[in-house]
Design goal:
- By secondary structure, the chain is mainly alpha-helical.
- It is about 55% helix and about 5% strand.
- The chain is built from 14 helices and 5 strands.
- The strands form 2 sheets. Strands 1-2-3 form a 3-stranded antiparallel sheet, with no helix packed on it.
- It is elongated and about 70 Å long.
């Protein structure tokens, strides 16, 4: 039944490959559990769902991972009920666990520049141009890494500074290239010989935008490696991934006063609630400014030189 379900979500639900892989892992782990407990997957009892959640908690799994497994197995048994493989869904009434809301990691403006400049350390011109183009594209557009690596030249409009990307569930949206991203891509494409007409910024069609040394389409793992290498060269201590650029894109837009609904559209979020986490980051920054700038903001009502310097750095 699990293979049938995976085939269903792959072909009918059209879920992303990473999501499908996570579903497979979750179901396999559940199957291992019920085999040990000698429970028939086609004939679970009403406590099977809650017992499995308790088992996961006892083994130290964090709430966010448990909640993902609950969603997976609820969907799995919903499908089993619809196809009349089982009589009821043992995960239907299992509640998600409470979890701490952690704000996403993001870069400060100066950190983005430091990482970008670290690409210049490469002795190979192509590597330097490609790596700068990747980080500039990620930060300028807020694209997911999956959207970035699947980009083809047909999807770019260099004249209008836009790109058409394909997001989750094959949902397409337009993203926008800032001046730095546009210039980085131009230099990178020139090095690759991608222009059919340089004066009009027309690109040859059907080519992968970001490639490896063999000029083949770069993988998501390849982008992760590039991002981490550049961060190491820039001496960035925080956890780094392509998604941190997406968080930075959204956070900086909110901080500069962008309407959250526009940010939602640019990120390709289906729900506004997904985007609203970035408003909390903006509020945290405002609190910091208030504590440094307002006469009653600091604990002793005196602004130290150090606080003034921090305030100037925030404004800059």
């Amino acid at each position: 039944m699990s293979r049938e379900f995976i085939s269903y979500i792959s072909n009918i639900e059209n879920l992303a490959p990473a999501t499908i892989k996570a579903y497979e892992t979750d179901i396999t782990q559940f199957e291992n559990y019920i085999n040990v407990e000698k429970i028939d997957i086609y004939n679970p009892d009403k406590n099977t769902g809650r017992a499995y959640v308790a088992f996961l908690r006892d083994n130290g799994l964090d709430p966010s991972s448990i909640n993902r497994k609950i969603i997976t197995l609820r969907s799995f048994y919903d499908y089993a009920v619809r196809t009349k493989k089982v009589l009821f869904n043992p995960f239907e009434k299992v509640k998600s666990l409470k979890q701490k809301k952690s704000l996403p990691e993001y870069f400060q403006y100066e950190e983005i520049e430091k990482i970008r400049e670290s690409a210049a350390q490469s002795s190979r011109e192509f590597i330097k141009l490609r790596d700068q183009a990747i980080v500039d594209f990620l930060y300028s557009t807020g694209c997911r890494v999956s959207e970035t690596v699947t980009l083809d030249t047909d999807m770019l409009n260099m004249y209008n500074s836009t790109a058409l990307v394909c997001g989750k569930r094959d949902k397409e949206r337009i993203v926008y290239l800032g001046d730095k991203a546009l210039n980085s891509l131009k230099e990178y494409f020139q090095a690759l010989g991608y222009f059919s007409d340089l004066a009009c910024c027309k690109l040859k069609k059907g080519l992968p935008v970001f490639v490896n040394l063999a000029k083949k389409r770069i993988t998501e793992r390849g982008v992760f490696y590039i991002i981490n290498k550049m961060a190491d060269n820039a001496d960035i201590k925080k956890r780094v991934s392509p998604h941190v650029y997406r968080h930075s894109f959204a956070t900086h837009l909110i901080e500069e006063g962008a309407d959250i609904r526009y940010v939602q559209e640019m990120l390709g979020h289906e729900s506004l609630s997904t985007t609203q986490i970035y408003t909390h980051i903006g509020i945290g920054r405002l609190k910091q400014v208030h504590r440094m700038a307002h006469p009653h903001g600091s604990f002793n009502n005196e602004k130290s030189d150090n606080q003034r310097k921090k305030l100037r750095s925030i404004k800059n």
